[in-house]
Specification:
The chain has 283 residues and is an alpha/beta fold. The protein contains eight helices and 16 strands. The strands form four sheets. Strands 1-16-13-12-2-3-4 form a seven-stranded parallel sheet, with helices on both faces. The longest helix has 15 residues. The mean pLDDT is 95.
Length: 283
């Protein structure tokens, strides 16, 4: 079982670089988590490089704007790398394409400046999935017929946000990853660059090295709450992990507001996950 800690400062001297998840750890989409922001600021003041690693489909400039709107200060981090950033590189490598954006209009910056043409689903050569059109009202099943028709044409799908669900305030909403999972279930091809896949980690570590110079891999700490993304990514990259248990999986082991450690241990075992540390909220 992972070791329970009460403060990031308890372990931070063991690390040079922190790769920290954003949604569910630093904020909930509406409000920032002040203790988490203070913990990351303290880590930076102790000489640690903090790179925020997020499956947001927005390019990093859009996340900075979101931070300003909800009150996450720039002093919280050194750099941000988003799934949107690495997805743009993935789109560019596919070559000029007619792209169907499966997602809300706010995600159009994903396509800005790229040699692609946005078209409707009937003309598309490739699907760019950034989320549900109305994510607070719809579920993936509402898209089953559309996705089946796209799969019948053998269109590949680039998924800009591998997250399945995320908490927005107190509400759980579906993300692009849930549509990609359904598309794969229907036999479709999916291309993903965000967590838990290597491209986003490679980009984060490159940013950190550009800032501070070379560092040892065992001096990197990943922080996150999502089992299929943050946890699996840390495992795949062989990084130490601080698991934030009060995130999207809390219902699996929180009883009457307190963590049932036996249930948490069983949950981690079922998921073949062995984080080095855990705490309910980053602080």
């Amino acid at each position: 079982m992972a070791e329970r800690i009460h403060s990031l400062q308890d372990i931070i001297e063991q690390y040079d670089v922190v790769l920290c998840d954003v949604w569910g750890v630093v904020h909930n989409g509406i409000d920032p988590f002040p203790l988490a922001c203070e913990a990351l600021l303290a880590a930076r003041r102790s000489g640690v490089t903090v790179v925020l690693i997020t499956n947001s489909p927005r390019p990093s400039a859009g996340v900075v704007s979101q931070f300003k709107a909800i009150g996450v200060g720039e002093e919280t981090y050194d750099r941000i790398v988003t799934s949107g950033d690495v997805t743009r590189e993935l789109i560019a490598r596919q070559g000029p394409k007619k792209v169907f954006l499966l997602g809300p209009e706010r995600d159009l910056p994903l396509l800005e400046g790229l040699d692609v043409t946005r078209v409707d689903s009937e003309e598309a050569e490739i699907i760019l999935c950034s989320g549900l059109f109305r994510d607070e009202e719809e579920s993936p099943d509402d898209y089953r017929d559309m996705l089946a028709a796209l799969q019948a044409r053998n269109l590949p799908m680039i998924c800009a946000n591998p997250d399945l669900v995320v908490e927005r305030g107190t509400k759980m909403i579906y993300c692009a990853g849930s549509l990609a999972a359904l598309y794969r279930e229907l036999g479709g091809e999916t291309l993903i660059a965000g967590k838990p896949f290597s491209p986003i980690y490679d980009a984060c570590l490159a940013k950190a090295e550009a800032l501070r110079g070379a560092f040892a891999r065992d001096r990197v700490l990943a922080i996150g709450d999502g089992m299929p993304t943050d946890v699996r990514g840390a495992i795949n990259q062989d990084l130490d992990l601080l698991y934030i248990s009060g995130g999207i999986h809390a219902a699996e082991y929180v009883r009457d507001g307190a963590t049932d450690e036996a249930a948490l241990s069983a949950f981690l075992t079922r998921n073949v996950a062995a984080p080095k540390w855990w705490m309910p909220k980053l602080a």
